[in-house]
């Protein structure tokens, strides 16, 4: 859109007839037509050249977005043949081993679109792979956001939206997985019936309402279908739109570096570079899922057979994203209790009805808890390296460990046969690891981060290790350090100092405890735990002192200097063109 | 020292940066920017990717018509040729467009990084004040604060009308009690199954009755009630229709195991529930309801493939491992006059997963 | 160690023994031949007359064999599960040690200890005589019986599955139909019996027809990922899917090569300045 077309529209809007002198281009004419009706000029003026910083980890959310688009496209294709009905039919299609078998119309239509529709099996497989990728990409995107502290003010609400997207994506996945009405997914629905029945007071009513009577009934597949193709995608679409509008409004976060501060954003403009990269990435994501759909069988429902409540297969597992609650369900001991004759099934309630919602709440609250403990109410647009927020990183790793242990527990039978272990011993081990693993992970991660921070500080103060060992005239050995570049040093030190929060005063002027003092003490203690051990970037004075010291060292070593090659040129920090290791003096 | 809070949205750090910001590094050129030959080459590469994509699209159409599905799948290397070639041509076609576009962006599009200033997410003080004022004016003009009668009656009305959709959902399904009392199929409801006195036990998926003497020690039979396999002779035709078949299956699935009678530790009151070491249990796990039949003949331990609950079939179906809390319900069986296995009665407890009012039935 | 020694002697004997049994048509000679083999290779665990051996702790070293029948011997020895190399939760399948004639002799000896299922005739398990229509019907019937009785332990694709305390249901893909039939008939190790009173012989053959069809059918959707279900699929989604896409993302955002050269126009401008 050229500037002249803006001018034309402004003139036109005031009903003046002064045509511009230059003859507008064809594109200009179209743009002009649209702008006179939609006012796009003002809306797009800023956004067409909107800046997006470039980093691979910023594209993880894009994988999720594009997977969702692929899901809409392939899902639309599948609905043309899929019949969401549980009416009993006799299969007469192309797949021999099922011919003459009684099955639901939904399973029969799934076989039909897999075996009688060209490209149908491919689309079904692309759809399923894209679904797995959708949730996986949301999860890694979420980890990136958490590990870099991108969820801090002003982005807390976008984090909350993201958490809800993850939940909805999981439900969307489960309802879709159930639609073919095959033996495996039917077993999953049967387990879901068990979950519902385990709910206190209303459990059996909930089950009877959802299944339209006794399990399995005839209602659940059509109901899941409506949820899967209409209700949940609608909400997902709206939330994704909100998620991205907020992203545009807040502008993307960026890594600190020379010229990149908390007040600006540096990168490529939306048009052309970012649009090309993001648009190109859509084709790549679609291409990768298509190749996976072509080569890798997923959910071979024709082998599972139609759902039959009397049958089951070894290796009955949900899709991976339901794996961790399933793992919790596997390792929970058989606890049930009876109160006034009513049964409370802790063995189902804890892993399914309590744990996942609790985990989601913890996730949603992470940024709020953090900002309460730190007392930090500023806006943050610069990302932190995971090591620079050791406690946050450690909390995330602990949560991931918790998730990972339960996830692995969800595959305990496969682990048992593949590693030739006893399923009982594995289960006992997982019970212990669920509690011990996160604690150990927290401690190790925190210490690891702090030592990495110390290493960074050393690098800024004393330079990097060249790998060159020097021998002093006295016979002592030392490794030679050389200063790092100014850009690197800036990037390493461009972070805020952590401030341990402390209440202003425990008591007011009259010696009466200030309100909320107990909460304040807790907050102060948490803040001290969170930041107390962190290594802070050196101050300007410290850097000067260190450099002064280094110069002194260099003078001592000056006898050795002047040699063309002492080896440090080959440490990867220098261009080595035309250098040799030989000493030619 | 709550300086952070006082500073609010002021973004300046408390301590000056230890190393001054050197500013954005100077822009350097890419080989494609300075060398026309390299530029041309990159251009050709991009076009080549687009050409590959075009070829793939043509091949996609060719594959669509060339390879059969249905009764005579064309296969290629043991794989379904249609799915394989459609997917590969589509995938490579899409990927080539993506790679081409990105290669274009990386090599040929201008790559000057540009800078944009950020603004606080909060709106300006004036805007905020104006909004608050507009809001207050609106509220004031509506009079909602001054007229509590209108306000409270509105709140009550809106709250009540929210009940309408909830009530309308009531007909999603019958309640458990309604099913137990009104449904016209045998064994309806949470507390009953189709098993009844004299109901023959048949082989599941085969549908034939089982003679006790035909089973050997160590035999495990996945069994079902005869009503699920209606024939003209047995007279069950029309007894169960449509959805009732699946409902009946989901509760009546049965396991028969013949073991050495000496090994069975019968629970009190169940001494007569077996026939010559043939013992019958519900196949539905008491945890969340998966059907179970992973039995170890040597130990009589039955494992659930869903969550690995393990039951001891020699010891009244007791749970010996895993998340299930209750033993498997046992079905009392006997032989009829011809020597075929039949049920003595229904289960004496609800089968399948636990529910709140289970012990009240 | 002793066990291993005995096994080795048994194995050695098996390979070195003169092939006299081959010509023996007389049943009694066969039993006698089998008895000799048995005493050398099997009696340490199963007792000299196949009565079974208990260890001092009372655990079963080898179970009694009377009544297990020839089919059990043919299965256990023919698939290499016996003789056992070491005691473990379960005897794994391995290359067999005895020749088929020696196995027949052993089977004849064990069958002489007490009545048990005989080695099935080829007509019992072979699906070769079936017309295409009959075969299709057999596959459809067999599929339902397979899903009812077998998949619970052996998995929907016959890939096998886990059992309590380190036990496992082995894969049944690529197994000789005779051994599948014998396994159903005799219930080896922890497996349940599916005797002819449980699953009739013709239904057993239907199951075999279905298992064969599983192997013969093309991979309609591509490679099968081991036929292990959603765990393998999840693994591939993460490693192949997320892995390759992150790889692409790294390429997309990576810095392009830079050069210290300048554009001609810039050089010209600099030249003018100088």
Automatic annotation (TrEMBL), chain A:
Cofactor(s) this protein cannot do without: heme
Transferase recorded as keyword: no
Catalytic activity: a quinol + 2 Fe(III)-[cytochrome c](out) = a quinone + 2 Fe(II)-[cytochrome c](out) + 2 H(+)(out)
Cleaved signal peptide residues: none
Annotated compartments: Membrane
Major location category of this protein: membrane
Cytoplasm recorded as keyword: no
Membrane topology category: Multi-pass membrane protein
Name of this chain's protein: Cytochrome bc1 complex cytochrome b subunit
The organism's taxonomic lineage, starting at the top: Bacteria, Bacillati, Actinomycetota, Actinomycetes, Propionibacteriales
From TrEMBL, chain B:
Span list, region Disordered: 1-37
Membrane among keywords: yes
Membrane topology: Multi-pass membrane protein
PROSITE patterns assigned: RIESKE
Subcellular location: Cell membrane
SUPFAM superfamilies: ISP domain
Alphabetical UniProt keywords: 2Fe-2S, Cell membrane, Disulfide bond, Electron transport, Iron, Iron-sulfur, Membrane, Metal-binding, Oxidoreductase, Respiratory chain, Transmembrane, Transmembrane helix, Transport
Domain Rieske: 273-342
Names of the cofactor(s): [2Fe-2S] cluster
InterPro entries named among the record's database cross-references: QcrA_N, Rieske_2Fe-2S, Rieske_2Fe-2S_sf, Rieske_Fe-S_prot, Rieske_Fe-S_prot_C
TM ranges: 46-67, 79-105
Pfam entry (one): QcrA_N
General function of this protein: Iron-sulfur subunit of the cytochrome bc1 complex, an essential component of the respiratory electron transport chain required for ATP synthesis. The bc1 complex catalyzes the oxidation of menaquinol and the reduction of cytochrome c in the respiratory chain. The bc1 complex operates through a Q-cycle mechanism that couples electron transfer to generation of the proton gradient that drives ATP synthesis.
Family: Belongs to the Rieske iron-sulfur protein family.
The name this protein goes by in its record: Cytochrome bc1 complex Rieske iron-sulfur subunit
From TrEMBL, chain C:
Entry membrane topology: Multi-pass membrane protein
Annotated EC: 7.1.1.8
InterPro entries on file: bc1_cytC-su, Cyt_c-like_dom, Cyt_c-like_dom_sf, Cytochrome_c_Oxidase_Subunit
Keyword terms of this UniProt record: Cell membrane, Electron transport, Heme, Iron, Membrane, Metal-binding, Repeat, Respiratory chain, Signal, Translocase, Transmembrane, Transmembrane helix, Transport
Domain of life assignment: Bacteria
Reaction equation(s) it catalyzes: a quinol + 2 Fe(III)-[cytochrome c](out) = a quinone + 2 Fe(II)-[cytochrome c](out) + 2 H(+)(out)
Transmembrane segments: 235-254
Residue span(s) of domain Cytochrome c: 29-114, 137-215
Pfam families on file: Cytochrom_C (PF00034), Cytochrome_CBB3 (PF13442)
Location(s), subcellular: Cell membrane
Signal peptide from the UniProt entry: 1-21
Protein's UniProt keywords contain Electron transport: yes
SUPFAM superfamilies hit by this protein: Cytochrome c
Main enzyme class: translocase
UniProt-listed PANTHER family: CBB3-TYPE CYTOCHROME C OXIDASE SUBUNIT FIXP, CYTOCHROME BC1 COMPLEX CYTOCHROME C SUBUNIT
Complex formation: The cytochrome bc1 complex is composed of a cytochrome b (QcrB), the Rieske iron-sulfur protein (QcrA) and a diheme cytochrome c (QcrC) subunit.
Protein name (record): Cytochrome bc1 complex cytochrome c subunit
Source organism: Nocardioides nanhaiensis
